[in-house]
Each structure stands twice: as C-alpha cells, then as structure tokens.
C-alpha cells in the first residue's frame, strides 16, 4: 500500500511540474518552488491529511490541464 501511495505522489508531483512548463519563466519559477515546498511540508503528515492533500492537488492539476 505504501508503494502505491509513493508512486501516486511522485506521479502527481511530476505532472504538476510538467504543467508549469507552459508558464512564463518568472511564474514557472514561483510555481515550481511553491509545489516543491508544499510537497516537502506534507511529506510526513497522517493518512487522512495526505489523502486530502492529494485530492486537492489532483483537482488543481486537472484544472491546470484544461487551461493548457
């Protein structure tokens, strides 16, 4: 189960950073740093908070994907 969670987090992290590639350079830099900080801060949270975190970022990823 933990392996599935880790791969889900990595895939989401990678997807969000890929979506940032279309942003202007200054916004990409700010967005990338924000994503890195958020994922790092939530690395050791409990299961419930981790699920909420992933759901929110997956929703944001979907929204960004429709704008691109």
UniProtKB/TrEMBL annotation:
Interacts with the iron-sulfur protein subunit within the SDH catalytic dimer. Keywords: Chaperone, Mitochondrion, Transit peptide. CDD domains: Complex1_LYR_SDHAF3_LYRM10. This is Succinate dehydrogenase assembly factor 3. The gene is SDHAF3. Plays an essential role in the assembly of succinate dehydrogenase (SDH), an enzyme complex (also referred to as respiratory complex II) that is a component of both the tricarboxylic acid (TCA) cycle and the mitochondrial electron transport chain, and which couples the oxidation of succinate to fumarate with the reduction of ubiquinone (coenzyme Q) to ubiquinol. Promotes maturation of the iron-sulfur protein subunit of the SDH catalytic dimer, protecting it from the deleterious effects of oxidants. May act together with SDHAF1. Belongs to the complex I LYR family. SDHAF3 subfamily. GO terms for biological process: mitochondrial respiratory chain complex II assembly; succinate metabolic process. It is found in: Mitochondrion matrix. Pfam families: Complex1_LYR_2. GO terms for cellular component: mitochondrial intermembrane space; mitochondrial matrix.
């Amino acid at each position: 189960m933990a392996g599935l969670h880790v791969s889900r987090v990595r895939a989401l992290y990678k997807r969000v950073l890929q979506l940032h590639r279309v942003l202007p350079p200054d916004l990409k830099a700010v967005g990338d740093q924000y994503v890195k900080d958020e994922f790092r801060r939530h690395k050791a949270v409990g299961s419930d908070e981790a699920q909420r975190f992933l759901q929110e970022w997956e929703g944001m990823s979907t929204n960004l994907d429709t704008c691109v």
